[in-house]
Design a protein that fits this description.
Strand content: under 5%
Low-confidence stretches: 7-11, 149-176, 865-872
Structural class: mainly alpha
Shape: globular
Mean pLDDT: 85
Strand order of the largest sheet: 1-2
């Protein structure tokens, strides 16, 4: 390029340049417009060239992109019943992840709460062994919020922080988890330390409970135990959730279904439990008012014991349910001063102040004295004004001041000035002011005192207080009567009604029997995988913890014990307590040593001396305690067989519940003691399929391993089904072969498979296919497999149920189990019958016999009941 005379001149390009040249847009245009004759380009030309837009550069066509092959989506890990363990931490964490996903799928509340926030990295993780399970705690970061930057204020903030998302337009918070108790229960007049016996169930599942209740009422008959085990062990909010779930799942109202299936006072209790607390109180008030006559006691009990807030809730609920005004109904159905008292209380205007004005208390005490003792007649309105409007703390001070200026306390003054329903109303207020738990304890005592039971009041008080202060009510009841409330109830009512009332009063965790047999077992099996069922069998086949109540005595000396026993029986009379203090507190091995030493020292047989000195149940117990367990079993079997007739119950109880080794031992003992073959004696005294069952068991040939085969379980289940439910008649021999020879673990798996196949529990099938002694024997085997402690708890209950006591049966179980698993038997007894074994024994037997039984089951002898106590509640 050359520049001269104000013009730019470009040279001629070299033809066929082997080296390609890359030029800019401006340069290229300039070159294209140049003349091979060295044309001059003016400034105007340059400007024109610069204003031209570049043409789109055509790029060579590109090859179409190759399709990207995506890797296959990762498989969801397999849901296993048990993690690999054994140091495989990755496998265990994957197992936790899989089960969390499964849990989220089935739990809408958890799923929604986890899905909402954005979660940061993990800050902390803790893994704890809780004995019956593992607790895993994770702390995940909140994006943008440094860990530890937020601290809870020491006291309530004046302006609470708003939640990140605004509340719904209706002002209600989103429901996350059911409240622990109904807010109505927290509206008590005073904030006192109280505790209910019925508490929220930790493993609550409304849909599952609804399904169990549906199964309990479906078809012929009703499973009242299943109903009790749900309704009595769920909090009120949980029961309301069950009611909603039941209607959603089956399109029926649970309360109406209960009404169609149940009856009597058991139905009354179930109905009360299915209502919300305010609904229950409103229903009771309406029931007391409507129809001919009025039940003033109900009006008094509810209106005179509820707080302002509770009364307001009752009024609102009453209007909603019955479209009536509670105050107008009360005015229309009551009269006089009682009407004025109740109308005053319905205003819900009692002072809630916790402060006490001592001068005002003195003035009120003087006003009460002047309105009653200090004048001719009584000014009831003055009592009404003070008792219905003053706070509880203020009234306590007033009552104290009243006693200072009068020769009577306020209760005595009321009794001397008033009568009838008004008196009962005033006394109810006074007793609640003094001690509400004691008032309800007094009410419960009245319901069961004398002939008959006031069942309506019993149900009303237990249902309304079991989630508030039943623990304190029970304490006050025992102070008042010298007996437990449970004992009073057990003596006064019976059947399913007794079971549900006792369950509410005793409290504690629900029994798990519903999931071990019957319809509950069948329903539970349907929803489990084979892996879960296998794990269940493995867990049930592990060695069960067994705790004895009789243990070896420390500093044992056989000679001194033998000498003390000889002294107790020597001369005139017998020192039974000395015998109890030795035989009731020594192990079997120690007692056998005493027997041997006694014969060595005195040349006499201890058992024969005891039989000569004692009588009745005490003699039976002492004789059994002085024998080895195999000799005791052999003696019981011989007694059952010899003479006219046979006691098949004893044969079932002993032969059907012992292990192979125990059977071999008592067979040898039988031969040694009586010179006979037990097998031959059994064969000679029994017949038919029952004989075959016992002879088969006496071979002591059951597989006692803990292994099981799921396929074999399915085959056995099919064989049992075809031998019973599926055919006309029953092939008892097939049941016999399977129940006698298979291991406990194998039979547990078989029972599971049978429930899936027949949609029926094995126990229900046995009851429908067999009868008599054969049925008793088969059931004993099945129940021992499912829970030996539970089986023997049932045997103890049967020995004392009804009129009279089966002392032989009672003694057999206590002697044979007191050094094995009596602790577990007592626990099962209380779960099943809602009373302690000691309570049952105390009711059924007495004297030294009772004292020795108490020693063997590890209980102290109860003190005699106190006489009636006078005072505020006399």
């Amino acid at each position: 390029m050359n520049a001269s005379n104000g013009a730019v001149t470009f040279g001629v390009p070299v033809p066929n340049n082997p080296y390609p040249t890359q030029t800019g847009f401006l340069t290229e245009n300039m070159i294209n417009n140049c003349n091979p004759e060295n044309r001059h380009v003016t400034v105007g030309d340059l400007r024109q060239m610069m204003n031209k837009r570049p043409k789109a550069i055509e790029e060579p066509p590109k090859e179409p992109p190759k399709a990207i092959e995506l890797p296959p989506p990762p498989k969801e890990p397999e849901l296993l019943a048990v993690s690999p363990g054994n140091g495989d931490f990755k496998g265990n964490i994957q197992h936790i992840y899989t089960h969390m996903l499964e849990f989220a799928k089935n739990n809408k509340d958890f799923r929604l709460r986890v899905a909402e926030p954005k979660i940061g990295r993990m800050h902390e993780a803790k893994f704890e062994d809780e004995g019956d399970g593992y607790r895993i705690t994770l702390v995940m970061g909140k994006p943008g919020v440094p860990r530890g930057s937020l601290r809870k204020p020491p006291k309530v903030e004046t302006k609470p922080k708003k939640p990140p998302t605004p509340p719904p337009s209706n002002g209600k918070k989103k429901k996350e988890t059911p409240p622990k108790s109904d807010p109505y229960f927290a509206m008590e007049t005073e904030d006192l330390p109280v505790e209910g016996t019925v508490k929220p169930y930790d493993k609550f599942n409304a849909e599952q409970d609804a399904e169990v209740l549906r199964g309990a009422m479906k078809g012929l008959g009703t499973d009242e135990d299943a109903i009790t085990n749900i309704l009595a062990y769920r909090s009120n909010p949980q029961r309301q959730e069950i009611r909603v779930a039941f209607k959603t799942m089956y399109g029926k109202d649970l309360l109406e279904e209960l009404k169609s299936e149940l009856s009597g006072h058991y139905l009354d209790a179930c109905k009360g439990l299915m209502m919300a607390p305010a609904e229950f109180d409103a229903y009771q008030l309406r029931k007391a008012i409507k129809g001919l006559g009025t039940d003033e006691d109900v009006l008094i009990e509810i209106l005179c014991t509820r707080s302002n807030t509770q009364i307001k809730e009752i009024i609102k609920t009453y209007k909603t349910l019955f479209n009536k005004d509670l105050e107008k109904d009360i005015i229309g159905d009551t009269s006089g001063h009682l009407k004025r008292l109740l109308v005053s209380l319905v205003q819900a205007n009692r002072s809630d102040s916790k402060e006490v004005d001592r001068n005002k208390a003195k003035q009120d005490a003087k006003a009460l004295l002047d309105a009653g003792e200090g004048k001719w007649g009584t000014d009831e309105s003055r009592f009404n004004v003070i008792l219905a409007s003053r706070s509880y703390p203020q009234l306590r001070a007033t009552f104290d001041e009243y006693e200072k200026i009068s020769k009577k306390n306020i209760v005595e003054a009321l009794k001397s000035e008033m009568s009838g329903d008004l008196l009962r109303g005033m006394l109810t207020i006074v007793r609640c002011v003094r001690n509400k738990a004691a008032h309800f304890a007094y009410q419960l005592q009245k319901t069961m005192k004398g002939l008959g039971t006031d069942d309506d009041t019993l149900v009303r008080v237990v249902v309304s207080r079991c989630e508030i202060d039943m623990v304190q009510i029970k304490e006050e009841f025992q102070k008042m009567t010298g007996q437990t409330l449970e004992q009073y109830i057990a003596d006064d009512i019976s059947g399913d009604y007794r079971n549900i009332i006792l369950a509410l009063v005793v409290g504690g965790p629900p029994p798990n029997t519903a999931s071990k047999s019957g319809k509950g077992f069948v329903e539970a099996i349907k929803n489990k995988t084979e892996e879960e069922l296998d794990e269940e069998v493995r867990m049930e086949s592990e060695d069960v913890q067994e705790d004895p109540t009789v243990k070896p005595a420390e500093n044992f000396n056989a000679e001194s014990d033998a000498e003390a026993l000889r002294k107790a029986m020597k001369g005139f009379g017998t020192d039974e307590q000395a015998i109890i203090d030795i035989l009731g507190y020594r192990s079997n091995a120690q007692r056998l040593e005493i027997v041997k030493t006694y014969k060595t020292m005195f040349g006499k047989d201890l058992i024969k001396d005891l039989e000569g000195e004692l009588s009745g149940g005490l003699k039976v117990l002492c004789r059994g305690l002085c024998m080895s367990l195999e000799n005791f079993d052999a003696m019981c079997l011989n007694k059952a067989i010899k003479g006219l007739g046979t006691d098949e119950q004893v044969l079932v109880e002993v032969i059907c519940t012992r292990t192979n080794e125990q059977i071999r031992k008592f067979k040898e003992a039988y031969k040694t003691l009586y010179g006979k073959s037990l097998e031959e004696d059994v064969a000679g005294d029994t017949s038919g399929h029952f004989k075959r069952l016992l002879i088969a068991l006496l071979q002591a040939n059951r597989d006692e391993s803990k292994e099981f085969d799921r396929n074999k379980a399915k085959q056995d289940a099919q064989a049992i089904y075809e031998a019973g439910e599926k055919k006309w008649g029953t092939d008892e021999s097939r049941f016999n072969v399977i129940l006698v020879s298979r291991s406990y673990a194998q039979l547990r798996a078989t029972f599971q498979e049978y429930a899936k196949l027949a949609n029926k529990d094995i126990e229900d099938t046995l009851k429908s296919e067999m009868s008599g002694d054969l049925l008793k024997g088969m059931l004993a085997i099945v129940r021992c497999i499912r829970g030996k402690a539970s089986h023997f708890a049932t045997e103890l209950y049967k020995s004392m149920k009804g009129l009279g006591t089966d002392d032989d049966r009672l003694c057999r179980v206590i002697v044979s189990r007191c050094e094995v698993d009596m602790v577990q038997i007592k626990e099962e007894f209380q779960k099943q019958y809602k009373q302690t074994l000691a309570m049952f024994l105390a009711d059924d037997i007495s004297g030294d016999y009772k004292n020795l039984c108490f020693a063997l089951i590890g209980e102290s002898v109860p003190k005699p009941a106190k006489k009636e106590k006078k005072g505020w509640f006399s």
